[in-house]
Write a structure and sequence with these properties.
seven-stranded mixed β-sheet, five-stranded mixed β-sheet, disordered C terminus, 381 residues, globular, 15 strands, 11 helices
Length: 381
């Protein structure tokens, strides 16, 4: 392996959303402490710095750009004081904050603000604006520990807040669901039901055969992916999905890793990616044209060429600069993410083909297989 590739593999080795630095302490005591603060007057909270709130607007966290950003620029979460927040919204809304955890003696919470109130946090002078988590994910340098930590916090908060937005009513009797405890629970408002509701984790698994979906970016290939059905084990779901999508049977699976994925569909804000390698019993592919555009076998050398780290870095820098522009007050409608045309089915132009960036578990599955020890189990896949 070339030294440059080794360097890239080292820098991009960690999954996105998997470096949360906050520690969840006793939730009841944290909630009681927050309520005690909410009983105080705004003036009494003026110098209080042990409670920080991360504002959201429509699932987008508030971020800021440093006054003198490096090149490429970085971003940080724009935490707000409880004092500022109590001046904008009433205590009823503040009591619906979700607890994220502690860092030292400081509690961290998140709250989705109404549009008219959220506008108070946006400032070109302070370089603060609400940015989509997926854009932050692409624009974060994986070697920047602080940025990766903030991305993990933003992902966790987004998943919890979107769950609250999705779960408005009891799934059993239809009564309005009430916010409970520290934001990780809801309860049916019907005294005859009182069903407890908790965030649902939607597990997704990945396999080693490379395929394309019609909505993929041009020339991008990735692992097969699907959802677990009720009553299935992870291994059973993987076997079923591979058979349904490409008509291939497998007889052995090797677990790789898992990854929180809070940037999936709004209807599933708490996804969990679970990555596997699999041994195939046959090589003939029968593509399900409804699920996939194409699926093909690639050699190890072909896959190595598809790991385009210069492309990942270019996209990361471009997005990082765009986030910096947004924080500085640039118009939201300009400078969108790279606009790349769709791919042509069946193309094997290896110089232009690529796999997902290092923020996705699919990338780590593919790169682990491509550069595995030749004497390891993975080298036999």
């Amino acid at each position: 392996m070339e030294d440059n590739t080794k360097k890239h593999l080292s820098n991009w080795r960690n999954h996105a959303f998997s470096a949360n630095p906050l520690t969840v302490l006793d939730r009841n005591s944290s909630l009681a402490r927050l309520r005690s603060f909410l009983c105080k007057t705004p003036e009494q909270l003026k110098d209080e710095q042990t409670v920080l709130i991360l504002p959201f607007l429509h699932s987008k966290p508030l971020v800021l750009s440093p006054s003198s950003p490096p090149s490429p620029p970085t971003w940080r979460l724009a935490w707000q004081s409880l004092y500022k927040c109590v001046q904008l919204v009433d205590h009823n809304l503040l009591s619906n904050m979700v607890y994220l955890g502690h860092r030292g003696d400081t509690m961290h919470w998140a709250l989705d603000f109404p549009t008219e109130k959220a506008a108070e946090f946006v400032s070109s002078t302070q370089k603060t604006i609400f940015v989509d988590v997926r854009r932050l994910m692409i624009g974060t340098d994986p070697s920047h520990e602080v940025g990766m930590a903030d991305l993990s916090i933003a992902g966790q908060a987004k998943a919890l807040l979107e769950w609250h937005d999705q779960v408005q009513f009891c799934c059993k009797c239809g009564t309005k669901a009430l916010f409970k405890e520290d934001g990780r629970k809801k309860q049916c408002g019907n005294n005859m039901c009182k069903r407890n509701l908790f965030p649902r984790i939607d597990a997704v698994n990945n396999r080693a055969l490379l395929a394309r979906q019609s909505q993929f970016l041009s020339h991008m290939w990735s692992c097969l992916a699907g959802f677990i059905e009720p009553g299935e084990s992870l291994e059973e779901a993987m076997k079923r999905e591979i058979w349904e999508e490409v008509g291939i049977e497998i007889n052995e699976a090797v677990y790789h890793s898992s990854q929180p994925w809070p940037v999936g569909p709004v209807s599933m804000p708490c996804q969990l990616m679970v990555g596997f390698f699999a041994f195939a019993k046959s090589f003939e592919i029968l593509v399900d044209q409804i699920e996939l555009e194409d699926a093909q076998w690639f050699s190890r050398e072909e896959v190595k060429k598809m790991l385009d780290y210069s492309r990942y870095k270019k996209d990361q820098k471009k997005t990082a600069f765009r986030i910096n522009q947004l924080c500085a007050g640039a118009e939201m409608g300009k400078g969108s993410l790279p606009d790349i045309k769709r791919n042509i089915k069946g193309s094997r132009e290896l110089t232009s083909m690529f796999v997902p960036g290092p923020y996705a578990i699919a990338h780590h599955l593919i790169s682990s297989w491509a550069y595995c020890n030749q004497n390891s189990l993975l080298s036999k896949l």
